[in-house]
Amino acid sequence: MSARCQITGRQPSFGNSVSHSHRRTKRRFNPNVFKRTYFVPSLGRKVTLTVSAKGIKTIDRRGIEVVVRELIKKGEL
Question: So what's the pLDDT on residue 76?
């Protein structure tokens, strides 16, 4: 599973871990992503999406129908 949200587009960012002695090593900040299955009445089927926590809130606020319609326009589904 790629660590990329299909709705918000969030993906890993990179930075440094800084130790007590101030040595720096590269690290990766992964987004908080989940696989969620939603039933879309207009399509008449279930759709599995990889979404971040913010993406789940977006679906709750705007509705699954609107979000899926935009994903189809973008070519994600």
Answer: 84
pLDDT value of residue 1:
58
Name the CATH superfamily, with its identifier, for domain 13-74: Ribosomal protein L28/L24 (2.30.170.40)
Residue 49 main-chain phi, psi, to 5 deg: -120, 150
Unique residue bearing structure tokens 């800084």: 18
- In which region does residue 20 sit, left (phi positive, over 0), alpha (psi from -120 to 50) or beta (all else)? alpha
Q: What is the mean pLDDT of residues 45-52?
A: 96
What is the C-alpha to C-alpha distance for residues 3 and 46, in angstroms, rounded to an integer? Answer: 21
The C-alpha angle with vertex 51 and arms to 49 and 56, in degrees rounded to 5, equals 110
Q: β-strands 33-40, 13-18: how paired? A: unpaired
Domain ranges of the chain: 13-74
